[in-house]
């Protein structure tokens, strides 16, 4: 053995076998500053394992944790006119849309799906705050109407997860018109005698709070979520007073009668199962009694009436292959 074998050869091997380390393996908690391994964070539904801070979660990741076996079918949403006002600020509206679509991988700020939760079939809609702040535009209005119509058509409850900074300014008055449109959609559910449950997540503000987000039969919120119409900074500047600690947070609203529950994300599915089965007149779920879902059968039942072409909105999500 000599220095060539002991030093030079290992050194050369290390240079050629060096691998680049991905930069997205760790995430920093904005609340406590802890560095969290991405796999551990995903398994914990994007809740900090150190301080329990609830971070934003995409609609697909939320639905994967919500529906039995993570199986769901997307509900097709009518696509509105892309740029009705030819709006431009620092960028053109279509350019902002394309940038949001690239960064999130989604077509718009709301995803609508149908599936089973604890063997109770539901329609669910969720907003993505990462898509232009989850802002409420014409597509979001169409999505809520599509979700309500599907729920009424199949006599299913509707569960909506709100997360938005308000109306989308690039669509002007057309965006504000989604407030009465979504209110009418909720009224359709009430007239049909179907439950409408809202889960308010951080943040839910502006016109969203002033419309469909506060019209649920049951109002649930995640811990420490900001829920308001005008933000605390705007209110403080207007009234020139310091607001109380925790003002407009979910725990504050619960204490003042604006919410029914504040529920940790890991407990949310079980709570929704209990509430849904109770409101639908079904017997309580029994732990360990729920069989493994049949992904092929569930997706076939959900999309039997649609026959949506592959690749278009509404196509089945994660369609599994049968085992050989």
Q: Return the average pLDDT rounded to an integer.
A: 87
Examine the coordinates and then state which fold CATH places here, giving the name of the CATH topology of the largest domain: 2-enoyl-CoA Hydratase, Chain A, domain 1
Q: Please describe the biggest sheet, giving its number of strands, its sense, and whether it closes into a barrel.
A: 7 strands, mixed
Sequence of strands across the biggest β-sheet: 3-4-5-6-7-8-9
- Strand percentage lies at 5-15%
State the order of secondary-structure elements, H for helix, E for strand.
HEEHHEHEEHEHHEEHHEHH
Q: What spatial form do the alpha-carbon principal axes imply?
A: globular
- Helix percent reads 25-40%
Features of this protein?
324 residues, alpha/beta, 2-enoyl-CoA Hydratase, Chain A, domain 1, 2 domains, 7-stranded mixed β-sheet, two-stranded antiparallel sheet, 11 helices, 9 strands, 35% helix, globular, disordered C terminus
Strand and helix layout:
Layout: H1 3-16, E1 26-28, E2 35-37, H2 38-43, H3 59-66, E3 73-74, H4 93-104, E4 110-117, E5 120-127, H5 138-154, E6 158-164, H6 172-176, H7 178-191, E7 196-204, E8 218-221, H8 232-239, H9 250-255, E9 261-262, H10 265-279, H11 295-302
Parallel strand pairs: 5-6, 6-7, 7-8, 8-9
Antiparallel strand pairs: 1-2, 3-4, 4-5
Helix pairs in contact: 5-7
Account of the protein in words:
By secondary structure, the chain is of the alpha/beta class. It has two domains: 34 residues, no CATH class; 240 residues, 2-enoyl-CoA Hydratase, Chain A, domain 1, CATH 3.90.226.10. It is 35% helix and 14% strand. The chain contains eleven helices and nine strands. 37% of the residues are buried.
